[in-house]
Amino acid sequence: MLEPAHDDEQLVERIAALDIGKEEVVCCIRVPDPNAPGKRLQEVSTHRTMTRSLLVLCDRLRQAGVTRVIMEATGDYWKSPFYLLEAAGFDAWLVNAKDVKHLPGRPKSDKIDSVWLCKVGERGMVRASFVPPPPIRLLRDLARYRSDLVGVRTAEKQRVEKLLEDAQVKLSIVASDIFGVSGREMMQALIDGERDPKVLAQMARARMRAKIRDLEEAFYGCRFDDHHTFLLAKMLARIDAVDADLAEVETRIEEAIVPFADAVERLDAIPGVATTTAQVIIAEIGVDMTRFPTAAHLASWAKFSPIISESAGKRKGKNATGKGNRYLARVLGEAAVSAGKTDTFLGERYRRLARRIGKKKAIVAVGRSILVIVWHLLSDPSVDFVDLGPDHYDTRGGTQRAIRHHVNRLNELGYQVTLNPAA
């Protein structure tokens, strides 16, 4: 039986498409032919990516009455045309390059690509990618730069540890953090020329004082020479410089997050989500959830839902989620692990899933749950987070379900259970 199709495709009367390169932009404009109903007029032109040339392109689009401009996400080169067209009042669409890939077996050029993109765009065969508004874009740049700086600092710290190992200094075996107050003072003493293990060990502070003997062993027989001194000084200077940059970036983030302070506070109530995590989440998805009709749409965009691949009636693949926003995926994974250590619903969910499907899949599943909670909190400001509690799974299905669950768990641990009603 034929059923109505839920298609909202419509012909965009006046549209333009841009094939963007580093130096040039090829623009295709398609508009209705006033002399031949049902026919289209087409114009293809090439412009430089300099601002003056892009402003001329905006004037030409305005003269042609273009309402929508489509472009591919080509590296970072799309940003300047997109932002300029957006400021000029055009409905700018950024689309995924893989969604508009040209049909095989045909010639490929910038002109042909722009015409093809314009044709599929005017028929509604592409979807616009999510591009956050300007305030969120600024916050995103800062949050991502902070993450990159933390990565740079971590890499430099790893180089320091490798250098100490090369010099036969086993400080990392004794100290859990060689960049604490004690570790930094010891490394500075090495740079200043101190080589006596007993003197170096006596620089320990607080709880490190209990490891004096181990510290003496760690420095005994070290081969720390001028070569190591030069490199260690440079590495520590680099770490200090990155720390200073991080402090400045943190200050700018605090200023940029002020308009969204209420959203950060509400997300902070989710188990595993700290203030920094909430800032990154808002920087990556924004606070306007109208862009994502449902929580499932947001999870799918973030690649936190399995990709369905079916052919000939058979499911293919391993239900992988694919690669999405790596900055968002990183903080959601960290939040899921942190939530797994709490006595909450999300913590119990993580532990149950980890026992059944493994820790990696449990992290993705709990990360998706956190994302769903985030969508609901941001969609309705009047909604507050209420934890269901760690006993939700037991109480949801009634007493008998709870009994079966606990009996099965004890059986898995090798016990035989006999239930007797209490007096």
Topology:
Elements: E1 15-20, E2 24-32, E3 40-48, H1 51-63, E4 68-72, H2 79-87, E5 91-95, H3 110-122, H4 134-166, H5 171-174, H6 181-192, H7 197-201, H8 212-219, H9 226-256, H10 261-267, H11 275-285, H12 295-301, E6 310-311, E7 314-315, H13 326-339, H14 345-357, H15 359-379, H16 392-396, H17 398-412
Parallel strand pairs: 1-4, 4-5
Antiparallel strand pairs: 1-2, 2-3, 6-7
Structure, briefly:
With 423 residues, the protein is of the alpha/beta class.
Word description of this protein:
With 423 residues, the chain is of the alpha/beta class. The protein has three domains: 15-122, Ribonuclease H-like superfamily/Ribonuclease H (Nucleotidyltransferase, domain 5), CATH 3.30.420; 136-256; 259-379, no CATH class. The strands form two sheets. It has a five-stranded mixed sheet with strand order 3-2-1-4-5, sandwiched between helices. A two-stranded antiparallel sheet has the order 6-7. The chain contains 17 helices and seven strands. The mean pLDDT is 88. The longest helix has 33 residues, at 134-166. Helix content is 52%, strand content 9%. Helix 1 (51-63) packs across helix 2 (79-87), helix 4 (134-166) crosses helix 11 and helix 13 (326-339) packs across helix 15. The protein is globular and about 95 Å long. It starts with 14 loop residues before the first strand and ends in an 11-residue tail after the last helix. Strand 1 (15-20) and strand 2 (24-32) form a beta hairpin.
